[in-house]
Design goal:
The complex is a heterodimer of chains A (464) and B (311).
Chain A lengths: L4 E7 L5 H10 L4 E5 L5 H6 L1 H19 L14 H25 L3 E4 L2 E7 L2 E6 L4 E9 L3 E3 L12 E2 L1 H4 L8 E5 L3 H12 L3 E5 L11 H14 L2 E3 L4 E7 L2 E6 L6 E3 L1 E4 L3 E3 L13 E2 L2 E2 L12 E3 L10 H15 L15 E3 L4 E6 L2 H6 L4 E7 L4 H6 L5 E7 L5 E8 L2 H13 L4 H6 L9 H10 L7
Parallel strand pairs in A: 1-2, 1-6, 2-3, 6-19, 8-15, 9-10, 9-15, 10-11
Antiparallel strand pairs in A: 4-5, 5-6, 7-16, 12-13, 13-14, 17-18, 20-21, 21-24, 22-23, 23-24
Chain B lengths: L26 H9 L18 H8 L8 H9 L14 H16 L2 E9 L1 H13 L8 H15 L5 E4 L2 E4 L5 E3 L1 E3 L2 E3 L2 E2 L7 H16 L13 E5 L18 E15 L2 E15 L5 H16 L1 H5 L1
Helix pairs in contact in B: 1-2, 6-8
Classes of the chains: A alpha/beta (464), B alpha+beta (311).
Bound molecules: flavin-adenine dinucleotide (FAD).
Chain lengths: 464, 311
């Protein structure tokens, strides 16, 4: 190794880390990324991207069932699971290579090793590498991400009881499946496996599925999941889970009959990768598995920052990347750097129906004491959705009655994950209902429902 | 929803293109500012390229007006005289805005001053006659007549209705006259838009309303932002004459003194007349001396022969 001294050392090459390193290079610094596994992190290799590739296969599979409605007759359909999974892995691999090229293009040094913080000497922080080498840097960004959280009484064996890692590379399809946890990951797997012909039971401890979403959205997704044949159990506490060659049995508090299935996926959240990093030699604080930082990513230890999944929620790739950028800009003293504002991170779930939201839910907005104007427009009133044959769902917008601020937007239905950024831009530009109403939305598009929802908040919807 | 009134077909009103320099602010920032009577062009934006965002308006709104602290009050009460005894009052957002705007004005606008005396006996008489005839509730003030005369003079000498913008000089089509109103902790300059188009009765209603709402802090930002010319009147304090600092971006400000009886010479004879001295401060970048002088001449003409301003 030629270089051992850097301006910024980034531990972890996920969407938080590699983006931070590229930004640092753009600003004229000399960065290094240290990655122990695959560039692109969970997101590209075991998260966002491979799951979207799987969901696309499920969506195409599902669309065949609707072909007759469009006058297209299809013969016998066969799913080659191995090919589905292979494609998903190929997509992930291609993107991971892409990250490698991007880092090279930006002259970011990449080291394949596990990193551990060492001593601070003369304004430099030493980092010990698993290959025996050592590097040092003026600033260190910890972007080590997270892994699936375990439940105290359930151990994931990777065969019958799975975490997301095994769940996205199945060799065979189970006959039946229990998914524990109905957040984005659990709901996406429920949708995927169901479309692939598996009998799915989705179990949630809280009172509703997709608990961080607006209540109306949760209710809608629950109804459409159930209509498809997914069994949903909410407000349910798993007691004991046992597994054998035949599958899993889960007993539930207050129920006599235990649940049975061939497999189980645990999707009950994540915990930060904070171990074996040498944090104990620093003033860095860890709270419930995640590193504590200020809004710029600064930790309790001068010169060491943390971003992405290893820090606080929301645990999303785009949030990790944005934190990486503002952290580097802050370190280098750029002008006009702003911390991520409350509710500024949009969230998307790519199950069928898709879910997307930004800002406050209705309940949160009420609790914050706002007087509200709420609009809701169903895709059943949208020409494009009807033409697509996918007109379930709605767009809900929540405004502050006094200032016209768009407090929150919640969407469920066709391609809403591609639409939500319209509202995100509106919020960043601090648009009010007036600008949204005055904007011309092209016809026929799904986005017209976004316009109508705003109009509806002010009793002016045209098509409903 | 209430039904909107449907009116007979009429030509669409002409939309007025704004001549004001554009202030870059988010829609939400504008709305909150309007709601809280905050002038946007006095706020520094923290957004991209200095765009004013909600947080800028909100922090301007909560800028503290300091109170005397208990400790300070105690010292004041103790009665012992200390050298250099003083205390600090935090500058309000308005104070800072006045300070920075007027400092800019004095540093950037090369001021020159022209003074004339106006005999206002005729004007006072005309005012009396008008008020006797005026409808209930309407009381035309001397100040209203001065605004009217200034507006007419701006139309007669349009070169004086100008504002310096570096690459260009902006010439206003209307006499958008800002009148300085003293309020708690500072002053504010609400604008009588297109004053030349308002008769004295209408003008007096507008000025009374603006002044009252200015004192109550109820003006919308749009009511005191912009304009083409300022009038500052300290006559009611007995000030004989003074020179005012130009209120940017205006090109001129007229400082009006008290109308007082003074000896004057008419055709070689000493006489007594009510005389009001006015001083025009002009920005030499936009308005030359001769233009200022012509404007004052026109103004004086309207004031001394009030019939002409009634046309
Ligand atoms: C199934 C699934 C689906 C998801 N879908 C979405 C989605 O659709 N949209 C979305 O926004 N988010 C999604 N996420 C979340 C998203 O993957 C994470 O938010 C994102 O990856 C976080 O990025 P990061 O850079 O903080 O961490 P990671 O992506 O976890 O990257 C951390 C990297 O650090 C490396 N590392 C850890 N410790 C060390 C060490 N000591 N030395 C060297 N390297 C180390 C790891 O190998 C890893 O590559 C999903 C997650 C899962 C599990």
């Amino acid at each position: 190794m030629t270089d051992t001294q850097f301006d910024i050392a980034v531990i972890g090459g996920g969407p938080g880390g590699y983006v931070a390193a590229i930004r640092a290079a753009q600003l004229g610094l000399k960065p290094v990324v240290i990655e122990r596994e695959n560039l692109g992190g969970i997101c590209l290799n075991w998260g966002c991207i491979p799951t979207k590739a799987l969901l696309r296969a499920a969506e195409l599979r599902h669309s065949i069932d609707e072909m007759a409605d469009f006058g297209i007759m299809v013969g016998e359909v066969k799913v080659d699971l191995a090919a589905v999974v292979k494609r998903s892995r190929k997509v992930a691999g291609r993107l991971s290579m892409g990250v490698k090229h991007l880092l090279k293009k930006n002259k970011v040094t990449v080291i394949a090793a596990e990193a551990k913080l060492g001593a601070a000497k003369g304004g430099l922080r030493q980092i010990n590498l698993s290959n025996g080498d050592m590097v040092s840097a003026k600033h260190v960004i910890i972007a080590t991400g997270a892994r699936a959280r375990a439940l105290p009484n359930i151990e994931a064996d990777g065969k019958t009881i799975l975490t997301y890692r095994e769940a996205m590379v199945p060799e065979t399809m189970p006959e039946s499946l229990i998914i524990v946890g109905s957040g984005a990951i659990g709901s996406e797997f429920a949708s995927f496996y169901h479309d692939m012909g598996v009998k799915v039971t989705l179990v949630e401890a809280l009172e509703r599925i997709l608990p961080v979403e607006d209540e109306d959205v949760s209710a809608f997704v629950q109804k459409s999941f159930e209509k498809r044949g997914i069994t949903i159990m909410t407000g349910v506490k798993l007691q004991a889970v046992t597994s054998d060659a035949n599958g899993v049995q889960a007993s539930i508090e207050g129920h006599d009959k235990s649940l049975q299935a061939s497999r189980m996926i645990l999707a009950v959240g994540i915990t930060g990768n904070t171990e074996n990093l040498g944090l104990e030699t620093t003033k860095i604080k860890v709270d419930r598995g995640h590193i504590v930082t200020d809004q710029w990513g600064a930790t309790g230890e001068a010169g060491i920052y943390a971003i992405g999944d290893v820090t606080g929620p929301p645990w999303l790739a785009h949030k990790a990347s944005h934190e990486g950028i503002i952290c580097v800009e802050r370190i280098t003293g750029q002008k006009d750097v702003h911390a991520i504002g409350a509710g500024a991170v949009p969230g998307c779930t790519y199950c069928r129906p898709q879910v997307a939201s930004v800002g406050m839910t209705e309940a949160a907005a009420k609790q914050a004491g706002h007087d509200l104007k709420i609009g809701q427009f169903p895709f059943a009133g949208n020409g494009k959705a009807i033409a697509l044959g996918d007109d379930g769902g709605f767009v809900k917008t929540i405004f502050d009655a006094k200032t016209g601020e768009l407090l929150g937007a919640h969407m469920v239905g066709p391609e809403v994950t591609e639409l939500i950024q319209g509202y995100a831009i509106a919020r960043t530009l601090e648009a009010t209902e007036a600008e949204l109403m005055a904007t011309i939305f092209p016809h026929p598009t799904l986005s017209e429902a976004m316009h109508e929802s705003v109009l509806d908040a002010y009793d002016r919807a045209i098509h409903f | 929803m209430t039904a909107a009134p449907v009116t007979a077909a009429a030509p669409f009103p002409e939309t007025k293109s704004s001549d004001k320099p554009r202030v870059f602010a988010s829609p939400l920032a504008r709305r909150i500012a309007a709601d809280r009577n905050i002038v946007l062009d006095r706020i520094t934006g923290s957004g991209p390229h200095g765009r004013i965002l909600r947080r800028d308006v909100e922090s301007a709104a909560i800028a503290p007006i300091a109170q005397t602290t208990a400790a300070q009050a105690e010292t004041l009460q103790a009665g012992t005289i200390q050298q250099g005894d003083s205390y600090l009052v935090a500058n309000s957002q308005m104070r800072k805005a006045i300070a920075s705007r007027l400092q800019d004005s004095k540093q950037q606008a090369p001021h020159f001053y022209l003074t004339v005396d106006c005999v206002i006996d005729n004007l006072l008489e005309a005012r009396k006659a008008l008020n006797v005839k005026a409808a209930e509730g309407i009381k035309i003030s001397v100040n209203d007549m001065i605004i009217r005369a200034a507006a007419m003079a701006l139309i007669a000498v349009p070169e004086a209705n100008a504002s310096w913008e570096g690459e260009n000089t902006r010439l206003f089509r209307h006499a958008d006259i800002a009148m300085a109103v003293a309020i708690d902790g500072g002053l504010i300059t609400p604008i009588v838009w297109a004053a030349e188009q308002k008769g004295l009765a209408a003008l007096s209603q507008v000025t009374a309303d603006l002044a009252a709402r200015a004192r109550d802090g109820k003006l919308a930002a749009s009511e005191y932002t912009g304009g083409s010319f300022t009038i500052s009147n300290l006559g009611m304090f007995g000030v004989r004459e003074f020179a005012a600092v130009i209120n940017p971006p205006h090109g001129c400000i007229l400082a009006v003194g008290a109308g007082e009886q003074r000896p004057i010479v008419i055709d070689g004879n000493l006489a007594v007349a009510t005389v009001m001295s006015v001083t025009l401060s002009a920005d030499h970048r936009a308005v030359d001396g001769a233009v200022g002088a012509r404007w004052l001449q026109a103004f004086k003409g309207f004031v001394e022969n009030p019939v002409t301003m009634l046309l």
